[in-house]
Write the structure tokens for this entry.
Amino acid sequence: MSFRHIYWLILALLHIVALPILVLLSFKQRYKQSIPARFFLLNNSKPKDSDIWFHASSLGETIALSPLIEYFKDKKLFISSTTQTGFDRAGEYSIQRAYLPFETLLKFWIPSAKVLVVMEAELWLLLFTYAKSRGTKTVLINARISDRSINSYMRFRWLYKKVFAQIDEVYAQSIIDKERLESLGAINVQVSGNIKLAQVPKVKTKLSKPNSLVITAASTHKGEEEGIVEAYLKFGRGKLVVVPRHPERFESVAKMMQKYADSNNRTFEKFSLSKELKADMILVDVMGELNSIYAVTDITVLGGAFEKVGGHNPLEPLYFSNRIVSGKEIFNQRSLFEAMKNVHFSSLDKLSEMLEVALNSEPASLKQECDIDNIINSISKEIK
């Protein structure tokens, strides 16, 4: 019996054992579409054949594919995702989309494509193996191995060597990433930079810029909003717009902000009820409007880094000439921050002082670019 079959049998056993947990999780708002689709193939039928199959896990990775999708828009394109936010964002491309099933189900689902383009760390052995068996060229782009994860990858080097044996080309974010990927068995590795640097954010709703200073707390997580609100009140100027990362937290954040507004003689409103940003404190309780908010923002306080989440994409506020303040837990976004200058880092207890520093500083800007021409040329050769 081959390693591939043994690997599949082990995953199948885990799949069966996990079924009760998966059923329970599917009742949660953030998983109600993705788990049934990925683990039970509900409303997730096999896609039609395509020229290029893109796969990206998260919202940020799906957005980062926009330059490639735009370039190849006249071809037959398909995009898969593993998260609900990524799947929802993929719908904005007006191309065929689906959730990527768990590996045990891929054999019965995987479509044919001339090229499979996978973003970052989606190193699924059977995804690449089955794609190769259908004559598909396999490409991994924006690949990186972080400082925090390198030891974990090396412990399973034997497995990743088998994965990379099924990947024809790899495009790494940096020289360090190239060396780490090659140590795991990657071949034909080139450095293209971070593809996220090539994206141009789009505004969904054109908002009127308030006359006062606008501070946006973007993609915030539990444990961050209250400290940000307190720092804003201590800072004592402008409006505060809070955009929680996960929609299931909208109501709890709204109650907290209303409480602070009432006790500090400030006005509060939900964005869904009024999009004019008239109140002192505004909760953005809808999805997909963050770039619209950035377009009228002066200072962005970027969430996901005051708690040990790993940070979020800082490029979007940069493109709108925002001044950026982040927490220090940026381990998932370090390469992006390293490509930028004039970014400020703070803890929550020092945030009010850092807002003053940011206000009197230059907006964030890029100090390096990304070249995706090699990726485009490689894909083009296969779909002529």
